[in-house]
Every structure is written in structure tokens, then in C-alpha cells.
Amino acid sequence: MTSLRDRASRLPLRIRLVAGFSAAMFVVLLAAGTFVYWRVGYALDRGLDTELVQATGALAPLVGAGGRVTDRSAADATGVAWQVLDPAGSVLDHGGASGTVGLVSERQLDRVGTTPRTFNVGDFLPISHDPYRLRVAPLDDGSGRFLLAAVRRDHRDEALRELLVQLVVAGLGALALTAWVGERLARAALRPVERYRRRAAAIAAGASDLRLDVSPSRDDEVTRLGHTLNDMLSSLERALDRERQFVNEASHELRTPITLLTSRVQLARRRPRTQAEHERVLEELQVDLDRLARLAEQLLELGSVAGRTGHESCDLAAVTARVVNQRRLAAPADAGDTSTEVPGEPVPVAVADFEVERMLTNLLDNAALHGAAPYAVTVDRPDPGWARLVVADAGPGLPPEILDTATRRFVRSEEARSRPGSGLGLALVQAMVAQAGGELRLCHAGHHASHGGRAPVACTHGHEMTVSILLPTGAPAAAE
């Protein structure tokens, strides 16, 4: 059974569909033919049984005490063959087309008992020469004798055989026709799938700009599958483009520190150096290695943001106050450069504590690296359902043409290229904000750029450089 199922599973889908449809149609036709044959046979037998009941009712009063019929002409007038049998099945009297040999056996008589029974004598197939339908009824005189009335079944059997032949022919014809129609329909339904397969094979071979040829005049399961696959191919192509662009940009950005390291090592090996000179070279190499490590760390963090599926929450106001206080304690000389405006009540957001800390740290690092003091950090609720974290500085800000692309990886203005940094800070912040369902806004000198969702909150206006993070509110994290 398992091997048969395995062989069937290797057949083409069209063949399996037609075979399954034909099998179901065969069962339906067989059931319908059986029902029709049974109803016609029942109707024909009922007509014969009615005739036998009438004949038995007419013959029973004519049977005398010795088992002989008293009025033979009246008995023959019933038009049926009849016999009077003793309990052993011997014929006591007969008439019509019956002979002296009993038409039923002693075992069949035992089955009669006190209730009239009906029997068929002679085979339906192959055709019998003497087919009869019999009715055997016990006589009411207490003698144990039986009265048998019989009619020939020739017309009944011939009608049923003709019906059987017609049902078989009609059923086979209907089965062949439905199988052919089913094959045509399956072929037509699966033709687009075969086109999709050939086109997908071409795409897998390297033709990435191709799409599945979906008929615009149809709207069924197959065409919807084609549209879905086309959308998937477009998403994959965009993902590949982004990956290719990321690899190119990462290669470009990594080339600079690696080239510097190689140059410094080559310069250090050109002539013998003192221990102090070697230590100075090692310190310079350490600076480049730290920069390279930070770049690699940021790349890893950026790649891991999309995989986060947690549903944590925290108090935006508490996390902001904590991060700013930690920075003030780490650099007491610059503590007065940063001002904060945080509400006294909790501001719950649907973002993990460490993610808010990472976003705010990146924004403050960017402001310190590319902006100028004083720095202002603000937390508020600009609209029901939304919380806002704003970091502003008094620096030169971003040029208007950079605002729309500032969150892309490795994007930096010309002025910022001479300063440390990799151009991944805002990209990392934007990725975390987007993962949380929020929005990142960059504003400077009346120019505004939005990255992510579209929160129903107006932009902050002013000439200073302002970075705003809009996050959906959520239940605050449980206090520890």
C-alpha cells in the first residue's frame, strides 16, 4: 500500500486530479445506477407479486381435503402455474405450465412456516430457460400442505438485463466524457502554473529582472498566487539590492581603517625604532583598531535589530533622565552643557529599556561629535498614543539635501567626513524606531525630513538641529 501510494505521488498533478475526479465520478455513477436498477427491479417484482397474490387468493378455496383442486377450469383461469405440495415437497396436484416435479425444495418449504414467502427460481445471468417467481403459502386446513403459484420472469429479466446494459454503456460513456472534460479543465487550470515554473527557473538561472506572467483578465487562486510570488520576487530583489549596497558601502568604509593600519605597519617596519617609538606606533594602531572595532560593532547591531521580536516596554522619562545623569557623572566638566526637560509622571512606551538607552546615547554622541553645545533633551506627550524624545544642539546641523538620506548607512556630509564616525549612528536609531512602529524626524533651519511611520504629530520648528523620536505608548515596565 505504501509503495502504491509513493508511486501515485510521483505522477503529475494533472493525472492525479483527473484520476481522483474519475474515481469520485465512478462512485457517483455506480451509486446512481445501482439505485435506478434497484427501483426498476422493485417495481417489476411488485407487479409480479400482485399477480401472484391475486392468483393465490383465487386458488386457495379450490383446494379440497385430499389436496386436489375441485374446479380445475377455474384454477387454470388464473393464468399462472400452480402446485399443491405436501409437507415433504411432493406434488399432490398441479396445473398451468408446472409439472409433477416440485418447483421448490423441502428446505425452502421449511423457511415458509406459517407466513407466505416469495422465491425466484432460475438464474438471472446466465439466462435460465425456466425463470419463475414463486409465491408459496400454507393452506388454512391444518394439513400442513402448501399452495404454490408461479409466473414466468422472462419479460422482467429481459427488461432488467436491457437496463443493466444501458446503465453500463451510459455510465462508461459519462465516465469517459467527464474524465476528458476534467483533463481539459485541469490542463487549462495548471497551464499558468507551468508558465510560472518555467519563468521561475529562468529567474533562478540569473534573470532577476523577470516576473511571472500573470493574466490581468483572471482573478482566481492561481493568479493570486502569481501576484503573491511577484511581490515576493520584488521584495527579494530589493533585499538583494540593499545587501549588495550594504556590502559595497561596508567594503568602502572598512577599506580606510584597514589601509591606515597597513600603512602604519609598513612605515613602522622601514627602519629600526626605539622602544618609545614602538609604543607610540602601537598607540596609533590601537586608535585605528578601536575605530574598526566600533564600526564592526555598529554593523552587527544594525543587522540584529530586524530580528528582535520582543514586546517589552519601559518608562521613556525615567530612562532618559538616567542616561543623561550617567553622562554628566562620566564627564563632570561638561555636565552643564546638557539640559533636560522630563515630565514628572511616567511616559510608557512599547520599547525595551536598553533600546531607548541605545537610541538616546547614539543621538547624544552624534550631537557631541557633529554639533555644538548647549544640548537640550526633551520628553513629552505630543498626542494621545504617542511619546516624543527630542535631542537638539546648537551646531551647524545637516544640510537640507542630507536630511532625507541621513539615516542610510554610511551617509555623511562632506564636513563630517573629516571627523571620526562611520555614518551608522542614525541608521541604527532609525532601524530600532521602525522596529518599534515609531517615526524618526530630522529638522534644521525650517527643513524637515520624516523616516518611518506617519505619526499625527506636528514637527518641532526652530533653527537649531533637532532630532525627534516618536514612539507608540504602552504599559510601563514593572518596577524592580
Strand composition percent: 15-25%
CATH class term of the largest domain? Alpha Beta
Number of helical segments with 4 or more residues: 11
How many beta strands in the DSSP annotation?
13
Uncertain runs with pLDDT below 50, 5 residues or more? 475-480
Q: Can you summarize the main beta sheet?
A: 6 strands, mixed
Here the CATH topology of the largest domain equals Heat Shock Protein 90
H and E string: HHHEEHEEEHHHEHEEHEEHHEEE
Looking at the chains present, what oligomeric state does this protein adopt? Answer: single chain
Draw up the topology in text.
Layout: H1 2-9, H2 13-59, H3 72-76, E1 81-85, E2 91-95, H4 106-112, E3 117-121, E4 132-138, E5 146-152, H5 154-204, H6 221-268, H7 275-305, E6 314-315, H8 316-330, E7 338-341, E8 348-349, H9 353-370, E9 375-383, E10 386-393, H10 400-403, H11 425-435, E11 439-444, E12 447-452, E13 465-472
Helix pairs in contact: 2-5, 6-7, 7-11, 8-9, 9-11
Structure overview:
The strands form three sheets. This protein has a six-stranded mixed β-sheet with strand order 7-9-10-13-11-12. The longest helix is centred in the middle third of the chain and has 51 residues, at 154-204. Residues 475-480 have low confidence and may be disordered. With 480 residues, it is of the alpha+beta class. It folds into three domains: 2-159, PAS domain (Beta-Lactamase, 2-Layer Sandwich); 221-303, Helix Hairpins, CATH 1.10.287; 309-472, 2-Layer Sandwich (Heat Shock Protein 90), CATH 3.30.565. The chain has eleven helices and 13 strands. A hairpin with a 2-residue loop joins β11 (439-444) and β12. The two termini are 63 Å apart.
